[in-house]
Amino acid sequence: MAADRARKTTLDLMDFIHAGPTAAHAVAAAAARLEAAGFARLDERAPWRLRPGQGFHLSRGATGLVAGRVGSAPPAEAGFRIIGAHCDSPGLRVKPKSPYEARGYLQLGVEVYGGPLLASWADRDLTLAGRLLVRRRGGEPRVALVRVARPLCRIPLAAIHFQREVNQEGLKLDAQKHLAPILGLDGGRAPGAGALLELLAGAAGVRPADVVGADLELVDAQPPALASLREELFAAPRIDNLAGCHAALEALLRAPATARATTVIALFDGEEIGSQVPSGADSFFLDAALERLSLAAGPGREAWHRARAASWMVSVDGAHALHPNYAEMHDPHHLPALNGGPVIKVNAKQRYATSLLTRGRFEECAARAGSPVQHYVHRSDLPCGSTIGPIAAARLGIPTVDVGNPMLAMHSIRETGGVLDQEWMIAALVEHLGRGERRSARRSARPPAAAPRPRSARRPDRRTGASRETPAVRRSGVGRPPSRGRGPSARGRGPAR
Ligand code: CO
């Protein structure tokens, strides 16, 4: 049954989120799924030899991932079908000289990464996850992932008796003074640093003496959970944007292995801090990977530029669902609902990359998949957020649409999403990855000049009544009006399959 399938998909998303407390863990979890499905690991430093139909993945610095499947036609002819998402989330990162002792307590120094809702980090069961640099005999040090399974530290708020007005005036948290978590009590002669090192080394399965460095984050110790009366909602850390990563990954795994176009997903690091990191959307990470895929199919810089011109990208990142307690914060005519389907994000200043053509194309993909879509525009009197879409689109020159599933409490340590939306998003993305292949096949199956369209291209869509256009028609701007989101009216429906 369709609702069961949606629930199963969300339970799988929750597992993926739990496996990814940091960007490095999420990338490793994604790579493990790809390898289980036969995708070969590529090394950026080695020559690439790829054959049509082959799945591949590569990571850069362990915190970004590009994966895909080589199409049966060269990219210069069939283009790339790309999905982008980001694998980092806002939070608190541990400073190098930690822990330290202060006034009888053992504490960690932390820096704020990105824009978390700081209050949500207070009085929660927190633990540590990240990477250890481990010495190897006769070789370069290696990186080991580490995660402590149990609650390890807390950031207690000051009691109400010290700040009587806090509920009226708002909680103010100074990033330097108020966020240092308490790891325990000063152990007197037993130094805390040694005990923490032993704990971390044990969790990573390495010898404490071999650990030469650590890169640690504070993370929520509580696993994701279904959390509402009829289990129609779920709560989890990092829904922004591991939901986007999971959707991209699952769409790639489900997409047909015989597509003409080369399919690519990119899980970028550094989105929450501006994307200017080596595996970020504002780096050459995806750019270089696409160019090499093009060169692997045939020599020539022109072929690469032709490939770009024939490509489409969908950028997936969280969207704001209507919050009933803060309804006035939304534009009254754009109110995405949880379990209302994927949201297409639009912004006049191009804080979202969505254009008329890319919006229309995604709406068609969703309609084909039986997924409802909704639309989001930020209030005109508030500055709009942004994402990887505009950055990657500008760098690559590839038409891009910004979409995302509706969620509450974005950037809280624990966010809320709807149980139906992930399956709808994945289904629409599979159409995006596979659809161009069918169109290209149709295009190449007929003479290049103005030949009559095949019947299938003119047949109206049974669900929407809209006729399907060829890319040539769409690109000339003669498409039908794009806006036909079903919006909140779709609330409560199971996936239409
Ligand atoms: Co995001």
From TrEMBL:
Its EC number is 3.4.11.-. The keyword Metal-binding applies. Belongs to the peptidase M18 family. One of its GO terms (molecular function) is metallopeptidase activity. Keywords: Aminopeptidase, Hydrolase, Metal-binding, Metalloprotease, Protease, Zinc. Residues 435-497 are annotated as: Disordered. InterPro entries: Peptidase_M18 (IPR001948), Peptidase_M18_dom2 (IPR023358). It comes from Eiseniibacteriota bacterium. Residues 473-497 have a biased composition (Low complexity). One of its GO terms (biological process) is proteolysis. One of its GO terms (cellular component) is cytoplasm. It comes from the Bacteria. It holds the Pfam family Peptidase_M18. Its cofactor is Zn(2+). It is an enzyme of class 3 (hydrolase). This is M18 family aminopeptidase.
